[in-house]
Amino acid sequence: MNIHHLSQENSIVNKFLAEIRDVSIQKDAMRFRRNIERIGEVLGYELSKKLNYTKIVATTPLGKKETTIPESDVVLCSILRAGLPLHQGILNYFDDAENAFISAYRHHPKNDENFEIVVEYFASPSIENKTLLLIDPMLATGKSLVAVLEGVLKHGTPKKIHIVSVIGSEEGVTYVKENFPKNTELWIAAIDKDLNDKGYIVPGLGDAGDLAFGTKM
N or C: which end of the chain has fewer CB within 10 A? Predict the structure, then answer.
């Protein structure tokens, strides 16, 4: 798996990361969502450099100009609900992409720290032989992404998979690398060192879904 770790270099994405991590700033849910969206725009721009392109001719009022544009075979697939702001940021740049949504959540059958990933809802166009972007802001243990991949592949086989995340853990990135196709591309803004005993990224930022949309029952 090829890993593109954006915060290893200085860029504006580091400002957005600092703000979504900051406990005082992240109390503003609208600002939190917008910063996730802006990170999605940056990740989408970087990702766009690796897509397949085709030549077109644009007609201007004064003549014609040959240029290249991405091939229109992209499907964006977000993990509900936390993935929605990140999805929107990527969609801002891939405005003609098809869209898919899948639910994945942690189920604690014994009400302790142990959990399993439950994948239920899936709404998608055909992904057969298309470029699939799997969108999940927090790559913690990596188990959600692997469970989602297993669920998605029941409905077709994409020709290429890109994973788009905001923050991941070293452990989660390793787990995904071991369980995804070798030619998968991971686009991630930051990779943190640790997971706590509840499987949350440290220092991370907390629960992205709760910060974006409010606490759940």
Answer: C
Domain total of the chain: 1
User: Domain for residue 151, yes or no?
Assistant: yes
CATH of the domain at 206: 3.40.50.2020
What's the pTM value of the predicted model, to 2 decimals? 0.92
pLDDT at 104: 79
Structural domain containing residue 154: 2-51+71-213
Instruction: Give the per-residue pLDDT at 40.
Output: 98
Residues of the chain with pLDDT under 50: none
Secondary structure (DSSP) of the chain: -EEEEGGGS-STHHHHHHHHH-TTGGG-HHHHHHHHHHHHHHHHHHHHTTS-EEEEEEEETTEEEEEEEE-S-EEEEEEETTTHHHHHHHHHHSTT-EEEEEEEEEE-TTSSS--EEEEEEEE----TTSEEEEE-SEESSSHHHHHHHHHHGGG---SEEEEEEEEEEHHHHHHHHHHS-TT-EEEEEEEESEE-TTS-EESS-S-HHHHHH----
